[in-house]
Description:
This protein is mainly α. It has two helices and no strands. The longest helix has 29 residues, at 24-52.
Amino acid sequence: MQQNEWILDVLSDLKSFAMANGLNALAEQLDDTKLIAAAEIASKHEEALALANGRKGRFGTYLGGTGRCQRA
């Protein structure tokens, strides 16, 4: 989902600012935050692809296909 990837650039800019101004702990935290944001964006992208391909989504929504849908 490229519409959400702008936040990664913002976090990188904030980290650069923090490093340039001696805010090392903040820079490290922003680096961790960027990793979390990237993982969540990738997860949302994979979920959107699964829904587009007719597979079950996060909340049990089934958008097509043939056969039975079984639940535990």
